[in-house]
Task: structure prediction
Amino acid sequence: MKKPVDLVNFYPEGEHELVRPQQKYLSEQSAVDWYCFWLKGEEDPDPAKAEQYKRWRELKTLRVANENKSAGGQFRAWQRSHLCARHRTLPDL
Result:
């Protein structure tokens, strides 16, 4: 599909189902960060998250470049942003 992805393994020693409270909190917080960035365009100013947002900004740049290369990319980008704002659907990364 030639789509850029960001795979993160926070807990190499952890199980698929996180059981430690700190692991659960950090996993859930990363999901909140993802939604805020990709759906609302917001970034947490916490310096500890700077690298995460740098990666995501690079992925966003790649996504836009891929959309502009494809036929009708501008319409799909508008349609996706419209759906995200109106219906809170996930963007196609």
Notes: The chain has one domain: 21-87. The CA atoms of residues 43 and 56 lie 10 Å apart.
